[in-house]
Amino acid sequence: NNSSRFGKFIEIQFDSQRRMSGARIHIYLLEKSRVVQQASGERNYHVFYQLLRGLSAEDCAASYLDVLEMEQLRLVNQSGCTTIDGVDDGADLQKTREAMAAIDMGEEERHQVLRTLAAVLLLAQLEFDQDGEEHSSVAGAAQPLLEQAAELVAIEPADLSHALCTRRLVTRDDVVTVPLNREQSGDSRDALAKALYGKLFSWLVERCNEKLVDDSASTAFVGILDIFGSEIFATNGFEQLLINYANEKLQAHFTAAAITLLQAEY
Q1: What is the DSSP annotation of the chain?
Q2: Residue 115 and residue 109: Cα distance in Å, rounded?
Q3: Rounded to the nearest 10 degrees, what angle do helices 107-123 and 89-102 cross at?
Q4: Torsion (CA) 145, 155, 191, 139 in degrees, nearest 10
Q5: DSSP string, 121-175
Q6: Which side of the chain, N or C, has fewer Cβ within a 10 Å radius?
Q7: 24 bridge partner residues
Q8: What is the pLDDT along the chain (266 residues), one digit of tens a residue?
């Protein structure tokens, strides 16, 4: 039960009478690599399992999540772990909805959040073919998934396909479109899934801050640094290097502030 990999700094605000008046959340680092890759025995972010187990049949069909079983979904079937003892994902979805309502998110906004999460799940299912020149295209069998994912994020399927299978090079005099091969398109798909989740997460944190922050009354705050530890996987990408480096730098800064400066004072 360790999939909320979210490094953050929280200001707990106090007014002139030293009464708690608000709070602000600062995003330090979100482990977006977990969206597309999980270690053995670990789950993806909890909300995906909540979605798959807690949506009504009607909402599931509207989000196109009724077309595949959980065991077929690439973002949740990699580690062999889809359940946690004592955790009811379906019931937790209702708690998540209640939390969104508590920060004054309207029904339509909550609906769009769930549609975006469904789009991330479907996007990751896309497979690609390539021709003799190693130019990729979305596989024929994946066309329905492409159309469904595109509809959920309100873009044209052709535009989504073009974005996944090509990249643009901007030069001083021109813009050149370069076709991608099958492997590169897969990387592009994963990058988009991570970016969608990351943007949604950042937006949700901002919505929380809109409800929590009260700078007009705040005269002091207590800061809480919540960061996660370094990890080494069987396959480590550049993003994992950045995560580990950021963690070590934050830890070093905290040690200097909390211990070294205190020692100097005494």
Answers
A1: -----EEEEEEEEE-TTS-EEEEEEEEEEE-THHHH---TT--S-HHHHHHHHHS-HHHHHHTTTTSS-GGG-TTTSSSS----TT--HHHHHHHHHHHHHHTT--HHHHHHHHHHHHHHHHHTT--EEE-TT--EEE-GGGHHHHHHHHHHTT--HHHHHHHHHEEEEE-SS-EEEEE--HHHHHHHHHHHHHHHHHHHHHHHHHHHHHHH--TTT-SEEEEEEE-PPP---SS--HHHHHHHHHHHHHHHHHHIIIIIHHHHH-
A2: 10
A3: 130
A4: 30
A5: HHHTT--EEE-TT--EEE-GGGHHHHHHHHHHTT--HHHHHHHHHEEEEE-SS-E
A6: C
A7: 11
A8: 655 578 888 999 999 999 999 999 999 888 888 899 887 888 999 999 999 999 999 999 999 999 888 989 999 998 888 888 999 999 999 999 999 999 999 999 999 999 999 999 999 999 999 999 999 999 999 999 999 999 999 999 999 999 999 999 988 889 999 999 999 999 999 999 999 999 999 999 999 999 999 888 899 999 988 876 666 767 777 877 887 887 788 778 878 877 877 788 88
Distance of CA 209 to the CA centre of its chain: 18
Q: Supply angle C-alpha 29, 218, 99, rounded to 5.
A: 55
Residue type at position 36: V
Q: What token pair was written down for 222?
A: 């207590």
